Known about the structure:
Layout lengths: L11 H7 L14 E3 L2 E3 L3 E2 L1 E4 L6 H13 L4 E3 L19 H15 L3 E4 L6 H7 L2 E4 L7 H9 L4 E4 L6 H12 L6 E5 L20 H8 L4 E3 L1 H5 L5 H10 L5 E4 L17 H17 L3 E2 L2
Bound molecules: phosphoenolpyruvate and manganese (II) ion.
Amino acid sequence: MDNSNPGKDISLxxxxxxxxxxxxxxxxxxxxFSVAGVQFGPNKCPIFAGPNMVESEELIKDVAIxxxxxxxxxxxxxxxxxxxxxxxxxxxxxxxxxxxxxxxLASSYADIPIITEIxxxxxxxxxxxxSDILQIGTRNMQNYPLLTACxxxxxxxxxxxxxxxxxxxxxxxxxxxxxxxxxxxxxxxRGIVAPHTHRSSSRFLLDLQVVPAAQEVTxxxxxxxxxxxxxxxxxxxxLAKACVAVGSNGLMMEVHPKPKEAAVDPLxxxxxxxxxxxxxxxxxxxxxxxxxxxx
Length: 295
Ligand code: PEP
Ligand code: MN
């Protein structure tokens, strides 16, 4: 750690005064907490799985049942989505309030907790009464008023890393949540911008290096999301295995019954069968590394 050159990298002064709450107090300091009965902390790797978009009640119920029986700990799915372009069609459309209701129905139907994205302060009451974890997306990582307002709900928050942000920026954002007295903060690496991503459709590069780097300075759990990083289904299983091996404290993956027909990001979701056999392998890797993977 360099103390002479504050800026992009983390200095000792940052740890003392910029993000004292996010920083570890000693080498063995790691947060441990539970969300809806799922444990977060060192040696734990819960799995978050589900489609990009909560497309319909039928779809999300089917996904909930199928991922739970294959080892997922949380059902994921977006109802309020930061879609890159403003144009909509019947299929390419946020399901918003209806989507939140379908997530809740699927959660009780399959008895699995849920995580969904919150984008605007005015939807906090709706989303926080429904979701076990509030997800802040990459594009909102530095939306500080939103972070503060979400923190005040005291709901657990998963803070996805801004795709152009340093670990220093990310911990600064986490501090905005912690300073409100909300201690259940989960970080999520989801790919960063890089000049070479090895496929034109891959918009980001999974930064596996940030996992040990973050664990050196922060006690917060670090989840990794290979799906949003690589945007390419054939690469998801090998990256997911690397995510467990590198010591991720959770794993998020997009799973859809018919990935090619997914309303959003059809290139990245994996199907049930791939997910099921992957989880078996991930559990084996976890065993070798003393990490409990999945439910
Ligand atoms: C998502 O998880 O569906 C999502 C939109 O992720 P990100 O914010 O990382 O792009
Ligand atoms: Mn997505």
